[in-house]
Amino acid sequence: MEREEIKFVQARYHQLNLNSEQAEKVLRFEHMKESHSPTHAFSAQEEWDFEYSVFREILSGEQMAEYQKRVAEQKEMYIERLVDQDKANRIWADQMREKVYFLKTTLIPSILFGSTQMILSLIIDRSKVDYLKANYRTFLHDRRKQILVDHFRHCSIYAPIRLKSALLGHYASCLLPTFDAFEQWMDEPTRAVAGFVKTKLPRRNSEIPEFYLEKLNESKAFAQQTKEKYYRHIDGWHVWERDPLPEEEENVNWLMSMILLDRNAYGFEDME
Question: Is the pLDDT of residue 237 over 60?
């Protein structure tokens, strides 16, 4: 290893007074920790745990005590940052609450209690729809578990508003299925069934799709309204939005979401 690299390590960890042999081992650790991976990354706590497991084999008792003091300070600052950042999540939480209320009281009842929803179900192979709905329920459970695991892995108990917001968003997808997210999650047999069901969707310019596309427009109008309400006058905020889907693809996804609608929100309960 280059002597210059060793000196940089010793300077970065100057509180520990590393000798050359120790600094070389720390440098090897840093190269391993920072090695590129497109699919895997440490959480902050996991990185500290990894670092601790290496440093306890490198440092003396006195150095280890200084190291632990240094890490304790880093963790305290990290927690303070999580708590402070979580305050900004109130906007997201309020927006999700309003969305859930809109879905429960306005949009979903206007769809489920109309005869058109029943007609749409009848013209599609019922066994195929039941198969997709069973898999969508599995998707919802998997997605909720992912939300919980990722949250506590990265935020522990220090961002409760962020967790509440994410779970409200998940509940919204129980009320109003998100076919595009479901499709990305599907295995090949489920994707094949979904592809078959798509071919059986009613053609445009008939009464059934026109009813649903009207509901799509209502949903989009509500989304735009809440976006303007919660983010228009907040300096420094930027709301990331993915590129819009082509109209035909958006319409097909919406009709597939309508087929997946469940009166009981797939057994999930309101988070409020």
Answer: no
Per-residue pLDDT of 183-220, as tens digits, reads 999 999 999 999 999 988 876 656 677 888 899 999 99
The secondary structure element, H or E, covering residue 118 is helix 115-123
Residue type, 238: H
**CA 47 to the chain's CA centroid:** 22
Spatial contact of 18 and 40, defined as CB atoms under 8 Å apart: no
* Cα–Cα distance for residue pair 71/89, rounded to 1 Å: 27
C-alpha–C-alpha distance, residues 220 and 175, integer Å: 16
Q: Among candidates 119, 135, 106, 134, which has minimal Cα distance to 255?
A: 119
- Cβ count within 10 A of residue 160: 14
Domain extents for the chain? 3-83, 88-267
pLDDT score recorded for residue 270: 79
Closest CA to 259 of 85, 124, 69: 124
pLDDT value at residue 7: 92
- Proportion of the chain in helix, strand, coil states, percent, rounded to 5: 75, 0, 25
Query: What b/e readout covers 192-223, taking b as 16+ CB neighbours within 10 angstroms?
Result: ebbeebbeebbeeeeebbebbbebbeebeebe
What is the reported pLDDT for 190?
A: 97
Q: In sequence order, which residues have a C-beta less than 8 Å from that of residue 121 and are 6 or more positions away?
A: 129, 259
- DSSP labels, 66-101: HHHHHHHHHHHHHHHHHHHHHHTHHHHHHHHHHHHH
